[in-house]
Structure formats: C-alpha cells, structure tokens
C-alpha cells in the first residue's frame, strides 16, 4: 500500500490517504476510527494496518475487492462494516493532482541520517566510508513536502546541494536487533532529499545544522509499505536538476545495507516506531563537480527512488 498526507486546496490540516495510481482515498471518509496520520497508524501496530486494508478492500467495487483475512482487526467490534463509515460501496476517490502534499512523515519519533554510506559520495567529499558509520540527527522543522518550495537566506549560504536518499521508517520498537532480522522491523520506505549547505557543513564539526534549515528535508511523495519493497538493496536512485541527471546509482552500492544500519543503531539505543532513517546518498553531488553545481533561486530538483516515486522541490533564495 501507498500512503500520503494530503489536503484539499484551502485546507490547512493534512489527512492520511491511501494512494492508488492517480487517485487518493482519504481514510477518514471510509473509516469511523481512521488514524489521524502515519505515526498514529504505525503506533496501532499490525492490527491498525490490517484494519485499513480491510476497510479499503470492503469499499472497493466488487470486481476489484479481495476477501480480507479474518483477524482480530476484521472481526468482532472491528468488522469491516463497523470500520467503514457508510458501509460497502464505491470508494470516494480524489485526483491526486488536485490535492496538496504534506511531508510523508509528520510526527516521526526521530529523524536519523547516515552519512558517507556510498563510497563514491564519500570519496567526492573527501570523507572515509570504511571506518565507523557517520550518524547525525535532522531537526523536525526541516521536514517538508513533495512539490513544496524550500527557501534559504542568501547571506547565510550560497552552496546548497541535493542528496537523493532512500528513507526507511521503523514499524516497531527495535533494540539489539540482528542484521538478519532487521528488515522485519521496517514499516515502509519513502524518498528523501537531504538538502545540505556545504559551506556550513565543512566549517562546523556537526552536520545537523547544515542539513536542518526549514524545508531542507523534503520527503515523499508517498510511503510504500515494506511488503512492496522486498529488497531495499535493489533500488535505483536518480536526481534531476533543472532537466539534467546529476545522480544515477543503485542502493546496492551502499557501504552498509539497510539491515546493517538498523542493527548497528539498535545495539546502543532503542529505535522507536515511526523513526525515519535516511540512509545516505550516492555519488554525483553538486559540490564535487568542476565547476561546482549548487541549487539556485528558481531551481527545481527531483529525486526519485525506484518503486516509490519522484520527489520534487522548488528552490527560492531570499
């Protein structure tokens, strides 16, 4: 399944929706006790997701409906009829093109980023990737949406760069997880653009501030549940800046796999449900090009991850 936080033009509060092709189904239109956002749904555990699947499946036209598995989420007090506000029937669908996106994650438990996780990117930035993993936090104010405009002050930085990354969302509390079991803790995947002020990055010891300006962490356009991405190490990533391909690589090139990252992080601290982990960017950064290529006023950058979608950001210097 594919989830997004969307809102109708003129509304300020995003609503959780299931995205199918070019249309969206707002859960609060088909469920009495709809989760208010993705974090709420994740915290409900497998039963919550099963209940959403049952509600959406029950409201599908008969030709497309599939029988829901009989679980605690689909029987008794939480039967499909109880979950669907108006009972079975055609789903109320909204064209995604008519809606506004919000960040794919609105209230993540935390946002963890991994640096230098592709050898080519580490090399171009003159960093080492074979030693200890580089780990830092991104501030929640930096989260923004697909299609949004990201701004930054001209007098603060003139070296703003893009970084296409696979985002991993944890589905249940992870502590002391072995790498062989780590993917069982993943709820879903999204696209992240880890926008970075390079001049600040290389003038400070810590990386959080240079990557946490307001709007520097676009996510989306959707979150895809883990069952639809059986192998996160077999996905293609690209970055398109104003019509030119700047990054073009595979997650197979990661120094540490998604499973290894989760395992390592969970050895020292419990990773709570809803945590977003941005897993690093491949080579092709604008900073390393000759001459360097940075995001400018009026730039449009689109980062894409195979199987998830394309995340577009418009740039404005103020």
UniProtKB/TrEMBL annotation:
Alphabetical GO biological process terms: carboxylic acid metabolic process
InterPro entries: FAH, Fumarylacetoacetase-like_C, Fumarylacetoacetase_C_sf
Region (Disordered): 57-78
Fumarylacetoacetase-like C-terminal domain sequence ranges: 111-314
Pfam families named among the record's database cross-references: FAA_hydrolase
One example GO MF annotation: isomerase activity
Keywords: Isomerase, Metal-binding
Family: Belongs to the FAH family.
PANTHER family in alphabetical order: FUMARYLACETOACETATE HYDROLASE DOMAIN-CONTAINING PROTEIN 2A, FUMARYLACETOACETATE HYDROLASE DOMAIN-CONTAINING PROTEIN 2A-RELATED
Protein name: 2-hydroxyhepta-2,4-diene-1,7-dioate isomerase
Source organism (scientific name): Agromyces aureus
């Amino acid at each position: 399944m594919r989830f997004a936080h969307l809102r109708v033009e003129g509304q300020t509060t995003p609503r959780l929706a299931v995205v199918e092709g070019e249309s969206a189904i707002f859960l609060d239109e088909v469920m009495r006790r709809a989760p208010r956002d993705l974090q709420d749904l994740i915290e409900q555990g497998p039963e919550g997701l099963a209940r959403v699947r049952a509600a959406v499946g029950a409201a599908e036209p008969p030709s497309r409906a599939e029988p829901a598995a009989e679980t605690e989420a689909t029987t008794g007090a939480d039967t499909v009829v109880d979950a669907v506000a108006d009972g079975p029937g055609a789903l109320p669908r909204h064209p995604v093109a008519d809606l506004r996106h919000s960040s794919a994650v609105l209230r993540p438990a935390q946002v963890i980023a991994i640096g230098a996780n592709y050898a080519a990117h580490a090399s171009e930035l003159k960093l080492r990737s074979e030693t200890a993993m580089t780990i830092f936090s991104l501030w929640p104010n930096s989260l923004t949406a697909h299609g949004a405009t990201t701004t930054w002050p001209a007098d603060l930085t003139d070296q703003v760069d893009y970084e296409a990354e696979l985002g991993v969302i944890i589905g249940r509390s992870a502590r002391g997880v072995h790498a062989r079991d780590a993917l069982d803790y993943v709820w879903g995947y999204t696209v992240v653009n880890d926008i970075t002020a390079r001049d600040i990055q290389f003038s400070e010891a810590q990386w959080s501030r240079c990557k946490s300006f307001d709007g520097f962490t676009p996510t989306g356009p959707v979150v895809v549940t883990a069952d639809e991405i059986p192998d996160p190490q077999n996905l293609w990533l690209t970055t398109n800046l104003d019509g030119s391909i700047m990054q073009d690589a595979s997650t197979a090139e990661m120094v540490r796999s998604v499973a290894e990252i989760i395992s390592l992080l969970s050895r020292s601290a419990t990773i709570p449900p809803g945590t977003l982990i941005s897993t690093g960017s491949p080579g092709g950064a604008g900073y390393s090009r000759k001459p360097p290529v940075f995001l400018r006023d009026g730039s449009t950058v689109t980062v894409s991850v195979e199987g998830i979608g394309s995340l577009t950001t418009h740039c404005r210097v103020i």
